[in-house]
Amino acid sequence: MGKKMNPQARRNARHYALQAMYQWQITGTPAQQIETQFIANQIKKNIDLDYFKELIHAIPLDQKELDEHITPFLKRPLTELDPVELAILRLATYELVNRLDIPYRVVLNEALELTKKFGSIEGFKFVNGVLDQVAHKLRAVEIKADPKKK
Hints:
Layout: H1 7-27, H2 31-41, H3 49-61, H4 63-70, H5 83-98, H6 104-118, H7 123-138, H8 140-145
Helix pairs in contact: 1-2, 1-3, 1-5, 2-3, 4-5, 5-6, 5-7, 6-7
């Protein structure tokens, strides 16, 4: 049996992965180079390092597919989105697509927390609106079965 997932370590992995994805989007630096830099210079606290590595390597590889899930719910081109909010949308969409072990409510909540911390003042409303629609498309069965949903 595997080790138990630590929610705070997972949250920290998302926190650093968001920063790494922002750097990747802005500079185009390869994920391996960003990983090395973050591990050497930035990661200072309890982190799920395997999850951090998964996110920063998989999201760039899956970018086209992730963007295809996001784009139908946007009112403007991806190129006009705030880069932090785009990185959050990609990260959360990756989790919705590939990490069915993470409940959709957790994915959305974590994305909103990251947006409130790093995004624009009203950015969480935009991110929430887009991700809610993405989640309804990708996790319809889970959402329908959710007793907390109306």
